Amino acid sequence: MADPRTSISSWQGPGAPPEIRRGVSGLFKRISAMIVPPRGQRFLPTATGYILILLAVGICIAAFNTGSNILFISLSLILAGLLLSGILSWVNFRGTCWRLQGEPPFRAGEKGSICVEIFNGKKMLPTYSIWFRLKTAMSRENGRVFLEHRLDPQCLATLEWVFEPAGRGIEEATLSGAISEFPFGFLRKSVGRTLSLKLIVWPRRIAYDLQESAVAQQFALQGESARRVGQGEDLINLRNYQQGDSQRLIHWKASARVRRLQVRQFASENQSAYFFFLQTSRKIWRDDEQFERFCRFVLTFAEDFFQESRLAGAAINDLPVINIKRYIDLAYFFDQLATLKVSDKDQKPAMPLKHNIVTFEPYGRSGVVAYAGGQKIATA
Amino acid sequence: MEGAGSLPTPVDRKLPQLNRVELHQTNFFLGLLLAFISLLPVAYLDIPVLYYYAFAMLVVSVAAFRPQIRLALPVQFWSAIPLFLLLTFTADVVVFAGVDGFLESLIRLNILLVCYRAVAFRKRRDDLQLILVCLFLVIIVALNTVSVVFILQMVVFAAISMVLLFNVNLLGNSERTETPQEVWTTFSWDHYLARLRESTHLRMFGLAVLLFVLILSLSAGIFLLIPRLGLENRLGFLGLRNSSSVAGFNEDIGLNDITNILSDNRTALRIDPPSRSALPADPYWRMLVLDQYRGDGRFRVSEALSMTRGALTTNRFSPADMEWERSDSDARERGKWLFYLEGGVARWLPLGGDFSSLRAKGRNRFLNIPAFRVVGQSSVNSQLFSYEIRDMEFQDRFPDPYMEKEDWPQPPEEITFMPEWREVYRDYRTTTLEIRVRERDFEYLDALVHRITEGRDLGPVEFAREATDYLAEYHAYSMSSRLPPGRGDPVVRWLRNGSDGHCEYFAGALVLLSRAAGHPARVVTGFRGGQWNGYEDYLMVRYSDAHAWCEIYDGEGHWVRVDPTPLSDGDGSGSGPHSDNLFGVGLDDSWMAYLDSLRVIWYRRVVSFDEETQSDILASLRNQFSTLREGTGEGISTAGATVREWMRGPWDFQRFFYLGGSFLVLALFIFLMQRLGWRLFPYFTFYRQGVRLNPVRRQAGTLLRRLESIEGETCGRDAADLPDKLVSVRDQLLNLRYGSPERRRNPGRVFREARLVMRRLRRG
């Protein structure tokens, strides 16, 4: 199973790298594998194949009955066609491998895509007509992706499957082997074992009421410097370089003059920033639906705060505080949020939080309210 | 690349390939081609399909040249066609063909179906249906014509079907669908052909050809190895109605029936003898004996003998099974004779004489008239009929126990008053003596007999010889004989007139003269002679070799062959029939004979392939394999002995030199292969040809190299210091060499300018 953080599975298929391929070895085993397909491989005639088999049986009966060599020729051509079909099908899969790759972020209720990367490792021959069946466990969506065009030797193609995750959490996407009816559509060959990929699905966004005046009041009284580059365009100062600052903001001439790296400081750095403290105790969140609403509210609120450069960090129960400066930090926080569960015990933050703390509590029967400094600032 | 395991770096290559619309178009044209191939040989069928055939070919041709025209037809039109076809078929069966002609109606329906499926807009299942109906047509036509064209047709058919199925499979590998309007509205042949040419890779094409050769070899192997169970046609299979035989080989013939087919130069019979020496110098191929003269120049098989006709349903029989009296001659030519009788010739099989056994493929109903010693089938085959005869003996005397038979069957009492039944039960011995002519004609015949015998008491054979001489003296052979007008029997009139005649006149005259002299005589029809085909060593007997001659009863239980037609003894005088060969076996090495030999290869190797041939071939392969194995073993031991001998020899400088040199060459080869590998053979690189064959890129590259060298030679300045013209030309050349093909504008002009600039640079 692939790591959900990487959203990428290992290669699979006859052409996968030898260290991960679990194919048959030995000449005899390889030959016998062509007759008796190994585990994970299946051959089934298609409707066309059944028609051809029926036709062959009919011609066979007529040929043996009449002894006509014209019919024997037709029969042998049909049988040779079937044999060649099997050989070409085998050649088509040879050297071909594939893997699953998710393209995060995935959000509940929004379309996301999973890619099947297929690589043709053959030296001379292209690969044709392969398709993959994909499904997701949580969303219960099924779909197919097709390799519609020829895949030339040593080339890589990406087939995209779009699906809509139903809810937050760990979604498991499954690719059930590669299927092909190449070359004539007589046989359906299925190769490769099931390939799974775990994807983190963030909660769905939610509409909420923000009490602007309360927020403004809070920011005015207790705001803490965000100390990171915001969107404001007013240059107010030059300051020393800190780890995490973008290189684009370095003021080279000033740095040369003072012999120390200096970066441009914009107005947005001085905005107030807040920490989100999330408590998931069962005592607080008795209703599961309300807890889900809480997660969605946190995501929406955090995302909006981040865009306004007002989010400094977040802490969940007794887990270490996540300092959120870049998008990757925010994504990590959302990953945590995606798998957040109601906890049965009370947990306190691992480190004392600073001034501006936004906490969340149930509001009414199903709502959620956010407090900052004990004052209600938003409800959902 | 991320993830567990590493793969080679993918190549970013975009080679042209047909898009879905073009694949649909290719599909359509492949279907048309398939229809065309399967319709072509329908013309050879001996059934009324001409109008259907012409219509289908016309529609297919129009659709091929203007495929867009189909968009103009409404959807209802296409929907109504299947119903129309069904009605046409029903009407054909009910009104015209009937149950007996069901297969003919089916073929006509099949032609229309092929045409409809090929021309209509097709989906995946329609493509498959087209292949099936085409295959049915190909097989049914081949079964009923046994034509050598079949093998070529089947090969082409298989190739096109596979490409079509491949294409269908490519198109089916998607969830998208295209409407006919999307596919055909903007179609143009020029664009389509250009795209086809652009996306065709020669190596892939070569590979496809190789695969096809593989499939043919595989199919040949399967054909060879499929066990033949010899079920002998126990179930009826689709076969057309039997055709009628040519007029000269019927049971009732007139004076000009055989002459009418003498101008036909087609091959009617092919005979594969054990060897050429087994053939006599002047072979007669007996088919049917006509014992009764009905008057008015017509001979027939008497009703009485027809009653004695026996039948045997088998695939092999011997003369004993037919109750033939065996000849005790030792002159029998041992070996296998294969006869290939073309369809529609006759139901009576040409035979040289007595034999040990006759074998045909499948169970057949063989007819037999023991008094004649002829073998026939219950009906005339519409297709080629082949049979094998073992140990044939060419005879000119045929035993006939019936002539001496005491108890000839008599009609039952209750029907003796009916004249037609009296005719049926007429004694065979009397029919061979009967002369149904007027009194005056009989008197003339009697007078002629006296003139021939000159009062001598001649035996039957002597009389026949004298009568033959008489006929040759007063009548010459001519293909264009004209019977003089008048009353009375035509043969007697011909005798009276002394005009020229052909074999039927001579044979008829001799029979009447012999009977007038009191000797039983009868007419025999068949072939005489033939042409030896030197390409494949077999005898071709053409329709023009058809012949009629006589058999006269010698009074001792045998019929003796007498051929009264002049030149029949090959004395070379006068002008006779078949003047090229003088009735013997001549050599034919013309190109027509070569084409005919191809048919015989087809008959020998494919049509006549059976269990025996199969076991012969397998035994031969086994022998060859064991010979090869033994030969290889011997070769290895000989080589080993040579090496051992060489090792024992004195080790001088020359020996060391050769040995060291060989090792060095081998080491060099291994080194190069390891370092350079397949790069030593650039032509094996898969897609190299695309670059190699692009003349614009190649030319641009050449000019760039030249330009660089000239720049270096002249001043070594960089581009910025060079005149604007030079910079511009170099940029354009770079674009042509490495840029996208779509951005090319008039490469010829750029090349000219580049050459001009280089010339100026050289001049300084």
Structure description:
The complex is a heterodimer of chains A (380) and B (764). Chain A has three domains: 176 residues, Immunoglobulin-like; 126 residues; 36 residues, no CATH class. In chain A, strand 17 and strand 18 form a beta hairpin. Chain A has a seven-stranded mixed β-sheet. In chain A, strands 1, 3, 5, 6, 8 and 9 form a six-stranded mixed β-sheet that branches. In chain A, strands 2-4-7 form a three-stranded antiparallel β-sheet, with no helix packed on it. The two termini of chain A are 37 Å apart. Chain A has 380 residues and is an alpha+beta fold. Chain B has four domains: 206 residues, no CATH class; 269 residues, no CATH class; 65 residues, no CATH class; 70 residues. Helix content of chain B is 48%, strand content 14%. In chain B, strand 4 and strand 5 form a beta hairpin. In chain B, helix 1 packs antiparallel against helix 6 and helix 16 crosses helix 17. In chain B, 32% of the residues are buried. About 4% of the residues of chain B have low confidence. The chains are: A alpha+beta (380), B alpha+beta (764). Chains A and B meet through helix 2 and helix 3 of A and helix 5, helix 6 and helix 9 of B.
Write a brief structural summary:
Helices cover 27% and strands 30% of the residues of chain A. Chain A has 7 helices and 18 strands.
Detail the topology: elements first, then pairings:
The complex is a heterodimer of chains A (380) and B (764).
Chain A: H1 27-35, E1 42-45, H2 47-66, H3 69-93, E2 96-102, E3 106-107, E4 112-120, E5 130-136, E6 142-146, E7 156-163, E8 169-180, E9 187-202, E10 209-210, H4 212-222, E11 235-240, H5 252-258, E12 262-266, E13 274-278, H6 288-307, E14 311-316, E15 322-323, H7 327-338, E16 357-363, E17 367-372, E18 375-379
Parallel strand pairs in A: 3-9, 13-14, 13-16
Antiparallel strand pairs in A: 1-9, 2-4, 4-7, 5-6, 5-8, 8-9, 10-18, 11-12, 14-15, 16-17, 17-18
Helix pairs in contact in A: 2-3, 6-7
Chain B: H1 20-39, H2 50-65, H3 75-97, H4 102-119, H5 124-145, H6 149-172, H7 180-184, H8 189-198, H9 202-225, E1 252-253, H10 257-261, E2 267-272, E3 284-290, E4 292-295, E5 298-300, H11 303-307, E6 310-317, E7 333-341, E8 353-354, E9 357-369, E10 374-377, E11 385-394, E12 397-399, H12 419-424, H13 428-431, H14 439-453, H15 460-474, H16 490-497, H17 503-516, E13 521-528, E14 530-533, E15 538-542, E16 546-553, E17 558-562, E18 585-588, H18 591-607, H19 611-648, H20 653-676, H21 688-692, H22 695-714, H23 724-738, H24 747-763
Parallel strand pairs in B: 14-18
Antiparallel strand pairs in B: 1-5, 2-7, 2-15, 3-13, 4-5, 6-9, 7-11, 8-11, 9-10, 9-11, 12-17, 13-16, 14-15, 16-17
Helix pairs in contact in B: 1-2, 1-4, 1-5, 1-6, 2-4, 3-4, 4-5, 5-6, 14-17, 15-17, 16-17, 22-23, 22-24, 23-24
